[in-house]
């Protein structure tokens, strides 16, 4: 019999979360008598650890998909996805353009070198691009004073039959915090004004949920939003939970109690003896550790649910096991189910906060050795 740990991916939760985003965008559009934007469902990093196949099923109502990996894009096409696919980091070598061409992918362009590769490519059809602006985050994108010339170069390539549509995009660094979006948005609007029509994409999860009105289409240009983490049932905000946003967890990580220890005052737990009992305690050992993707840096007090009762992790997480406090749940024994995070446990954001990280990391870090069950 295999170890009892497993993850469950709910396709219906993925679909529900996409619908939450869609309703928020529709409400924003109605408020200003505009048109709601289209949605690129972001499925990078193996759909944030949830699996490409589950994402294709859960996000079938999205207008497009966005990702980083060319192999994942090819997989989506070969699985039957016929809508737009956006490569968020674009292509990296001239040879990549053969796949961009064959599978009709839309590519982000953020460097002069990518424009050079497009100019030299032999393509069977025009390539649609999103020309990215660095509006202050200083990761990818053309600087504001270089964007206009890059756009002019792109238009020349369009006139030569290389490019199709030329969209404009950027990324917000602080849409989830008090700094907000006003500054970068002003830079984007100032730099792109008058450059010509084409798709526009500026909103990630945080901006889509908190500032949906900026993505509403009021003229002829098509707007696209790029929600990611919220589609998987985690919150992009520190001050607002996924539950408060109406989102459902799509991934649930579960295991069982595989051992029980009774401790006396002064007894220690785990590697490094980082926890010492200050009273008689009953401790459960769970078949889950950092080799399964649970964060090693999660400390005593991290929430966990055992047999439906909320309790806490104690001591140091090891490779294959962790310990939980069962003192307040005496009926629990070997074989009792444990929820590490998800539908019937703490939220992944709660676990992440206790471990000093973010839910994104935990979802993406689910280890290949953990069996995954997909439910409708």
From TrEMBL:
Substrate binds at residues 139, 319. It catalyses: L-alanine = D-alanine. Residues 250-375 form the Alanine racemase C-terminal domain. Its cofactor is pyridoxal 5'-phosphate. GO terms for molecular function: alanine racemase activity; pyridoxal phosphate binding. Keywords: Isomerase, Pyridoxal phosphate. It is an enzyme of class 5 (isomerase). Pathway: Amino-acid biosynthesis; D-alanine biosynthesis; D-alanine from L-alanine: step 1/1. The modification N6-(pyridoxal phosphate)lysine is found at residue 44. One of its GO terms (cellular component) is cytosol. Its EC number is 5.1.1.1. It comes from the Bacteria. The active site is at residues 44, 271. PROSITE patterns: ALANINE_RACEMASE. The keyword Isomerase applies. Catalyzes the interconversion of L-alanine and D-alanine. May also act on other amino acids. This is Alanine racemase. The lineage of its organism: Bacteria, Pseudomonadati, Pseudomonadota, Betaproteobacteria, Burkholderiales.
């Amino acid at each position: 019999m295999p170890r009892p740990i497993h993850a469950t991916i709910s396709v219906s939760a993925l679909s529900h979360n996409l619908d939450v985003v869609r309703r928020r965008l529709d409400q924003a559009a109605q408020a200003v008598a505009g048109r709601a934007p289209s949605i690129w469902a972001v499925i990078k990093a193996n759909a944030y650890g949830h699996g490409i196949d589950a994402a294709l099923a859960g996000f079938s109502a999205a207008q497009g998909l966005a990702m980083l990996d060319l192999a994942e894009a090819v997989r989506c096409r070969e699985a039957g996805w016929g809508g737009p696919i956006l490569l968020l980091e674009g292509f990296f070598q001239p040879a990549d353009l053969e796949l961009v061409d064959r599978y009709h992918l839309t590519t982000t362009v953020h460097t002069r070198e990518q424009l050079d590769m497009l100019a030299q490519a032999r393509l069977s059809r025009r390539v649609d691009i999103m020309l990215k602006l660095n509006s202050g985050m200083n990761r990818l994108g053309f600087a504001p004073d270089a964007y206009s010339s890059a756009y002019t170069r792109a238009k020349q390539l369009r006139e030569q039959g290389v490019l199709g549509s030329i969209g404009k995009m950027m990324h917000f660094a602080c849409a989830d915090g008090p700094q907000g979006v006003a500054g970068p948005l002003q830079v984007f609007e100032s730099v792109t004004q008058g450059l010509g029509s084409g798709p526009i994409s500026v909103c990630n999860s945080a901006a889509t949920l908190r500032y949906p009105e900026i993505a509403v289409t009021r003229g002829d240009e098509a707007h696209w939003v790029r929600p990611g983490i919220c589609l998987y049932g985690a919150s992009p905000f520190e001050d607002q939970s996924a539950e408060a946003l109406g989102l459902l967890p799509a991934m649930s990580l579960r295991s069982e109690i595989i051992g029980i220890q009774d401790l006396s005052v002064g007894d220690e737990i785990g590697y490094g003896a980082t926890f010492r009992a200050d009273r008689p305690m009953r401790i459960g050992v769970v078949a889950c550790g950092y080799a399964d993707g649970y964060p090693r840096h999660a400390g005593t007090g991290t929430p966990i649910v055992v047999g439906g009762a909320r309790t806490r992790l104690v001591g140091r997480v090891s490779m294959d096991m962790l310990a939980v406090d069962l003192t307040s749940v005496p009926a629990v024994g070997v074989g009792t189910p444990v929820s590490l995070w998800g539908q019937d446990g703490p939220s992944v954001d709660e676990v992440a906060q206790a471990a000093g990280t973010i839910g994104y990391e935990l979802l993406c870090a689910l280890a290949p050795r953990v069996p995954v069950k997909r439910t409708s």
